[in-house]
Amino acid sequence: MFFLKEYKAKKIKAPNNFSNRRRIMSSDNKNLIYLLNKRFSWMRKYINRKKIIIELGSGNGCIKKIIDDKKIILTDIVKYPWIDKKVDMLKINLGKKYLNKVDVFIINHSLHHCANPGLTLKKMSIYLKKKGYILINEPETSFFLKFIQVILDDESWSLKSKVFNRKSIFNPKNPWISNTAIAQLLFKNDKKFKKYFPQYQIVENKLSEFFIFLNSGGVNSSFFYIKLNSFFLKILNIVDEILIFFLPNIFALNRTIVLKKINENKK
Fold this sequence. Notes:
By secondary structure, the chain is an alpha/beta fold. The chain is 33% helix and 19% strand. It has a 7-stranded mixed β-sheet with strand order 4-3-2-5-6-9-8. It has a two-stranded antiparallel ribbon with strand order 1-7. α4 links the parallel β2 (53-56) and β3 (72-76). The chain is globular, with a radius of gyration of 18 Å. The chain starts with 5 loop residues before the first strand and ends in a 6-residue tail after the last strand.
C-alpha cells in the first residue's frame, strides 16, 4: 500500500455540513477543539489588522469556532445559510472591487476537491494584493493517510496527476471528487513550484497531525474517540511531532502552507 501511486474511491461522499456544523459549533469535545486550534490559531498572525480576508471552500464554516473575526468572508460552491458569498474555486468571480485588494485567502482542506488547483492559484493571485498571503491546510498523502482512505473508502489520491499543466485532473462538475495528493504534488518541491508560480514565495511548509487527528472525533464526520484533557492532548501532539520529524512519509496527515505574493501575476 505504501508504494501505491493512486487509489480511486468507489463512492463519492458528500459531507452533511448542516449536522457537522451543529456538532462542531456546540461541541464540548476537547480533542476536536484542540485539533481545530492547531489548524487555525496560527493564522491569526497573518490576518491580524487585515481588512479583506476570504476563505474559499468554507464548507461547514468551522473556522468561526476558533477565529471569531467578522471580517472573514466565508465562501463555498454551495450557498449554505452561514456562507457569505457563493464562489466556485475554479472561477473565483469575486468582482472588480476585489482585484489586487484581498489581503489574505484561506483554504482549509478544500483545495484537494479542486479539479484544477494550478488555475485556482493563478486566479487567486489576480485578486491578492502584493505581499498578501494564502494560508492553506491540506491532507498529506503519507502511508497512514493512504491506509485510512483505502480502509474507509473515503477519498481518492493520485500521485500521477499533473497539477502544473493547469488542466483539470478530474471531473470538475462534481465538487466532492478529490485528490488528497494535491498539496504534496504542488508544494513538496519548492524549486518546481517557483518555476510555475514565480509570483509566489513559500513562507511556511510544515507537516503535522497524526494521533491528534485520529483521536479528534472527526471534523467532517463523527467517529469514536478517547476523551483527553489539555495536558494529555499536548503530550499527544509532542508524540506526533517526534513521529513526523523522523518518519514524515509514514505519519503526517496534514500539510500547512503559507504563500506570499511577491510579484505581479504572470501569464
